[in-house]
Amino acid sequence: MKILTGLLLGLVAITSNASDVAMPRVYFAASGPAEYTYGPRCGNGIEATDSSYFRITAPPEWQYTGGGGGSGADYLLFNIGKQRVQVDVYANAQEFKIERDFEDHGPTGISADLGGTTVPIHKVALKGRTGHGILGFRWLEHSAPRQDYEGTVLITSRKSDALSPEQAAQVLGTVRAERCAVVREMLIPYVDRKLHLPTFVGGDPLGKNRPEEEPPLFTPPTSPLLLWTEAQIAYLLPLDEKRSACVAPLVRADAESNRMLHLQVLAPTGTHKKVLAEYVAQCDE
Fold first, then answer.
1. How deeply is 265 buried, as exposed, middle or buried, from its count of CB atoms within 10 A (0-12, 13-18, 19+)?
2. Is residue 213 domain-resident?
3. What is the pLDDT of residue 72?
4. What is the mean pLDDT of the chain?
């Protein structure tokens, strides 16, 4: 699974210096329903794909035909009329570095607005296809000695005139890190053996405030849901603030008998979404 790439890179501890901004920091995050949007299977209200971290919103006339993922890029395939377009998404520099058939032909003079950050559009070529892309934009920030995650997204086609730089900029500007995928990244402890909570720069997509509590030390086989405080669990849940506050103590109470429950409710996919929905139903009664 692609998530293993991120796990190998790891995360860092929140420092003891109170003046430091809590780490890790996530930029360009999103959550919730959006039309014509394609992203990770844990997302809600978007088209579920094999994308590991990012969502992207395509124009209504783009027909999604499939995609995939692996040890390198995730990819999405679209038809625009009779032309096929491929979107390749690299979550970090390590994934992009293994791509041997990439050519950067330089900036086009056009930029994408990526959540208020201006990112230059480059003309690119990949495996016989040509197009445009945004290269090496930082979306997940660590403290030293860990490296930041720098994403790259390319839109290419066999037809050289499939997309203009301006059209590419509109689509590339919609790239966002899916909140639930970021939370999933935090579910396994790293070098410091602590279970960290992400900081969403620019505001949490779900409108929550990050608890100012120390991340707990992971002590297997204890469930993480028994180590986090209820406030920390509520912050991680993919629910609005009110429902999160109600669901958090419920899942914590059940964690002793189900040590995999954190995987089922914090970043659920497939049938696990029904598990979370059952807890939500208890709160909505």
1. buried
2. no
3. 67
4. 89
